[in-house]
Amino acid sequence: MASVAIDGPAGAGKSTIAKLVAKELQAIYVDTGAMYRAIAVYFLRNQLDPEMSEQVEQACKNIEVSISYENGAQQVWLNGENVTPFLRTEEVGNMASKSSAKQPVRDALLQLQRDMAAKNTVVMDGRDIGTNVLPNAEVKIYLTASSAERARRRYEELKQKGETCDLAQIEADIIKRDEQDMSRAIAPLKQAEDAYYLDSSNLTIAEVVEAILNQCKEKGLWK
After folding, report:
1. 3-216 has CATH 3.10.580.10 classification
2. How many Cβ atoms from other residues are within 10 Å of residue 196's Cβ?
3. Which residue from 8, 73, 158, 172 has the fewest beta carbons nearer than 10 Å?
4. Which tens digit of pLDDT belongs to each residue from 136-182?
5. Closest CA to 186 of 101, 68, 83, 93
6. Where are the domains of the chain?
7. DSSP letters along the chain, please?
8. What gap in Å lies between CA 129 and CA 18, rounded to an integer?
9. Quick one: 68 exposed, middle or buried, by C-beta within 10 A (0-12, 13-18, 19+)?
10. pLDDT tens digits, one per residue of 81-97
């Protein structure tokens, strides 16, 4: 079994890229961010405050997150409900950034993620995969892009869905989430010392995938 860890800030394209890399490697794609978003859905539905430690600890005792695959696509389950369709809203993303900084939340998912990597060849993306979840991953990538470019991509994505959105506000939210993710005390977002730094601001999706596969080739994971 082998692991490819892809870390980076919100909106860097990690999920899109990781899915394509996993397909080329014939590996399982694991979107850890979606797991944290599932917990965020629980917090929002139950009007929980992630700054209230007792609420967080109690909530994590009542939360069971699991994943399955349908036609190769990851489905995320929260207490027996498939919550995949609810995970990509701005509200859920912002709550996930706050709640995922809490140790009980991270503990709830860490072993599940490591078990998957132990049993399968995986491409796993998130904020702390190479630094914390899979520190011994064969390939580590730090994928990023400028805040302006990440905001533009998110803006176009929301427009295509027919949603009303403000580009300046999207970028402000991205910058705020970057600060939250990088400054949190527990498993902050940072580049692993042995990770390959990849700025996708001026690259196509195909070029980013090729760059990562070249790293995999160097490690003998891809021909």
Report:
1. no
2. 18
3. 73
4. 999 999 999 999 999 999 999 999 989 889 999 999 999 999 999 99
5. 101
6. 3-216
7. --EEEEE--TTS-HHHHHHHHHHHHT-EEEEHHHHHHHHHHHHHHTT--TT-HHHHHHHHHS--EEEEEETTEEEEEETTEE-GGGTTSHHHHHHHHHHTTSHHHHHHHHHHHHHHHHHS-EEEEESSIIIII-TT-SEEEEEE--HHHHHHHHHHHHHHTT----HHHHHHHHHHHHHHHHH-SSS-----TTPEEEE-TT--HHHHHHHHHHHHHHTTS--
8. 13
9. exposed
10. 999 999 988 899 999 98
| Amino acid letter for position 105 | V
Residue with tokens 């995969």, as numbered in its chain:
129
